[in-house]
Fold this sequence. Notes:
This is Cytochrome oxidase small assembly protein. Keywords: Membrane, Transmembrane, Transmembrane helix. The chain crosses the membrane at residues 12-35. The chain is mainly α. It has one helix at residues 4-37. The termini are far apart. The mean pLDDT is 92.
Amino acid sequence: MSEPTNQKKANARLGLILASVAAVFFLGFMAKMILLGK
């Protein structure tokens, strides 16, 4: 914890990765509902 800037960068990167994964799952779920819902 000697360099808070590196920690902030790591936290931002982790947040972006988690958001990307969540978005991919959400888009896949929506595509499944649209394609298979009819």
